[in-house]
Specification:
The chain is of the alpha/beta class and about 280 residues long. The protein is about 40% helix and about 20% strand. β6, α6 and β7 form a beta-alpha-beta unit. Mean pLDDT is about 90; it is low at about 1-10 and about 15-25.
Length: about 280
């Protein structure tokens, strides 16, 4: 499946404009939207909440964190209405589950290759141990790991070793403490790594382009509530464009600071680390 900014533009413009402008209902519809981790991959939804873009579309959105494996069952039984996770909906659709991805908002990897101080370049990676937040190499982190190592001329299955850890704080700690030699971190963790004296060697998005965050729902929602789907899309497209406009950098950094509980300077740097991955809809 190939998803491009051009495809997203056509789809979203059709949703935004072919049905005319809407006046929010007197009482907002309650909608549940899931995400899988507190990272900037899902910043568009957080901005849509903080800037009241959902409210302006007549939507009362509950933005909840959920384990990756729980997303599709939760969609199927109606516990959530939408998810911003990418791979589970795509994998499920390929297996025949009636789920539909309607848009993509992050279209390339946000991962950065981070290493111990003595690993100074890609040439130092051979024989080293990576720590990854995955139990296999078929998920988004595993695919990034394989693509970047192959870019450097290394066989990810033969030239390095890898072990698992639960999340970004654990990955960071294991490299900082020397338990592992390298990892892949998403913002704001690369900035934290630099501050701790670790090396940030490479931006994976320069060689690995694949959607990471979008908006997916069950096909019954598209049939039964097409107007709601359009309003969700409108709010998220507005949020993405808000993120990309330089005049809004302070407001966006403030959201990052509050949501991820970090100093404002870290929030500002983290934002700079992800802007290249966002599609403008």
């Amino acid at each position: 499946m190939t998803l491009t900014k051009h495809t997203l533009t056509i789809f979203c413009l059709a949703c935004l404009f072919s049905f005319g402008s809407m006046t929010p209902a007197a009482k907002s519809e309650e909608v549940t939207l899931s995400y899988t981790a507190s990272t900037l991959t899902f910043l568009a939804a957080r901005i849509a909440l903080d800037q009241n873009f959902f409210r302006q579309e007549g939507l009362d959105v509950k933005f909840i964190q959920m384990r990756t494996a729980a997303n599709i069952p939760a969609l199927a039984n109606g516990h959530i209405d939408y998810t911003m996770s990418f791979l589970p909906p795509i994998d499920s659709a390929l297996r025949g589950v009636p789920i539909q991805m309607t848009a993509v908002f992050v279209d390339r990897s946000l991962h950065y290759l981070v290493s111990k101080p003595n690993v100074k370049s890609s040439g130092d990676l051979r024989g080293k141990t990576f720590v990854l937040n995955t139990v296999d190499l078929n998920g988004s982190t595993g695919l990034v790991f394989q693509a970047v190592l192959r870019h450097f001329g290394l066989d990810p299955l033969k030239d390095v070793k890898w072990i698992s850890a639960a999340d970004s704080p654990a990955l960071f700690t294991m490299v900082e403490q020397g338990i592992a030699d390298a990892t892949f971190l998403v913002p704001p963790w690369p900035h934290k790594a630099r501050a701790a004296g670790l090396n940030v060697l490479f931006r994976a998005g320069d060689v690995y382009s694949a959607p990471l965050a979008g908006l997916s729902t069950y096909r019954r929602t598209l049939r039964e509530k097409p107007d709601q789907v359009r309003r969700m899309l409108r709010a998220l497209v507005r949020a993405t464009r808000f993120i990309l406009q330089p005049v809004n950098q302070q407001a966006v950094a403030g959201t990052v600071q509050r949501w991820l509980k970090m100093p404002i300077d870290e929030g500002t740097q983290a934002l700079k680390d992800v802007l290249s991955a966002y599609s403008d809809g």
